[in-house]
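Notebook B, p. 112. Complex prediction, attempt 2.
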Amino acid sequence: MPTHVAIIGGGLSGLSAAFHLSRRFPSTLITIIEKHTNLGGWAQSDRIQVKDEHGRPSSVLLESGPRTLRPNANSVLELVHLLGLKDSLVLTPRSAAAARKRFLYIYGTKGLTPLPSSVATLISSPLRSLFLRAGLRDTFIGRRHRAGDESVDSFLSRHFGEDFALTLGSALVHGIYAADSRKLSVRAAFPTLCEAEKRGRGRVIAGSFLSSPTAANEYDLGDMKSVMDGISVYSFRDGLSTIANALQAHLASKPNVRLLLGTGVSRLSIGDDVEVTTSTGEQIRPTHVVSALPLPQLQALLPPSSLPHLDANPSSSVTVANFVFPASSRFHPEGFGYLIPRPRAGYGTAENPGILGTVFDSCSLAAQDTPCTPPIKVTMMLGGPYGRADMAESTLLRHLGLHLGGVRLPEVLHSRMQHHRDCIPTFTPGHVERMGELRRVLREGPWKGRLEVIGAGVGGVSVGDCVEAGRNVGTDW
Ligand SMILES: C=Cc1c2[nH]c(c1C)Cc1[nH]c(c(CCC(=O)O)c1C)Cc1[nH]c(c(C)c1CCC(=O)O)Cc1[nH]c(c(C)c1C=C)C2
């Protein structure tokens, strides 16, 4: 049993690990070391006060990282239940426009193209022939790929055709990984597609109708399943920071938990003992360590060549631009927002200076704001495979108006732009095998299972993946 666990990194993975370890080992000392003074990683929510064009005040919640959660992530629902956050939930039902209506902005077409969400909307959709050709190709050609991993673009092109992979696949990958679908591993990023291909003997659509056994895992959910019945996504009145703040308050109240904020780690080594040196020069000798850092940051703390594959993946940087407009000026359609596929001519061409997509936040999260008809909030996401997009606000707004079919935008009440460097890892093909080898070396090498490596760079980039990984830490200890 561990007597002292050091957790390096206080994002949601590290906090989840601390929460679950402190429950499982109530007499073990747990030290969380985070170089920033705030916890929660890039899930940061800020409340701002704005005045509308008539001088009336409003309070608006802005997110700089993830903004909504899906109810299928049981590990997060469990935290909501155990931390008593149910009363601050903001729920978006499946019937809401934000859940049903998603758009693409396709170069060469005017305005937004709705994505079909049912058979009826498919029949009348401008994307009908693209979807039909994709369905026919997968069903009648069906191509099983036997050797190893491949990119998302290559997988989708094989099954659904190149046009589908470019239009739908690249846009989806922008919206989740802010990455180039030609570089992202299908096995690591969309394992369910590979499983469906296997079940359908080479046909993904057929395979997705065949059920697969799901591993049973016990979660302490209280009545969260019924609360989430019919819900598409959820957040909290004060945004996603609510989870990190509640975890921090919970951990701060535990006598066996020590929070070292504003303290980095400069060295991590293993001899007879594990040794962690902090940026303040303190030497800590825990029995076990959890790294919840981005993998290249962990690599920088270790002696050269200690662990394999930590620098194998690149990562995407994203600039998040939040805009607040007057309540009276609904200028965009109701819906989730829109994604922009990779330009046919490639990234960095004149038609797109670097915009990946735009979220119509008010359609799902207006309940975070006051008064009851609050200002309209919209978030544009830039960068990723385009590289750093240093765009003037006026240029961004000109593009937004153009994407919406040439609408005249109202005066902006508030805006801000935040650049998140290397915030989302891009799992390149072979990632799953590489992480298997990393786990083997951690188990069998000098660490002998005393170091566990988690975080978005290992097993998945969603909040659910990060919280789940933290929950599973140290189950062999
Ligand atoms: C802030 C930029 C982010 C981009 N991707 C992510 C973030 C935080 C991570 C991410 N986004 C989504 C998922 C899938 C989660 C799930 O479905 O369970 C992940 C891991 C989907 C998503 N994409 C956008 C939103 C609002 C959501 C819902 C989840 C969330 O709030 O993050 C919009 C969006 N995100 C990015 C871009 C470029 C984009 C464009 C409209 C990058």
